[in-house]
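ingest -> validate -> predict -> emit
validate: passed (alphabet ok, no gaps, 264 aa)
predict: started
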Amino acid sequence: MTVAIVGGGVMGEAILAGAIKQELLKPEAITVVELLDERRKDLAERFGVNTAAEASDVLPECNLVLLAVKPQEFRTISGGFPKDALLVSIMAGVRIKTLASHFNHERIVRVMPNTPAAINAGMSVWVATEAVDEKQRATVRSLLDTIGHQLPVDDEEKLDMATALSGSGPAYVFLFIEALIAAGMTIGLTADEAEAMTMQTLSGAAQYAQESELSPADLRKRVTSKGGTTEAGLHELERGEFSELIKACLRAAYERSKELGEAK
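emit:
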């Protein structure tokens, strides 16, 4: 398989590194298209891949093309590729119909990954056109498995939902981490102490929720003793309409994702 990764940024590198590390792709079969000369040299030295400054020099020979550029940049990409090649886009908000029109191509997979993919702990939600065959779908599953977990969906609209939840989700978690550390300091903990407790608590709780047979609601109830400290803290979150704020947060991100998609 001959592969072109158009865009050598953080997410492009994450997929490149994962695919090579797990021996899904051979470095010599990969060409990274990147405008920055220093970045091309860096990727070539570290991963042993081919590099190019122009997509038109590479695309005609590729079986798999991964678009990992910023959404506003994809229209500058020129050069056709074989009709049976697979086009995979990780660009936020760029609809399949837009890609199909611009590249005059039918075999398209659109993916919404998230930033933890940089440490192989990402969540990638994807949808494929009917023209994508089962072998190509298997390739996508394997490729995305190298950077974390993947979830295929049957409706492109769900990618706007995924953008709001898993795509933007890490930022919500980071904000909660910031707030919990700051709150810990207000009750007398040092910054280092508050950070250590917060990081392990969130990491451990997430892993516990994933591995437990109980639902998150049941796990919460098990740790909440009547009249205890957890109940007192949760009461304040409920008084501040925590759940409603999360719903509003997700709804706003979802609506904005739809707006951006319609504008492209």
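The radius of gyration is 21 Å.
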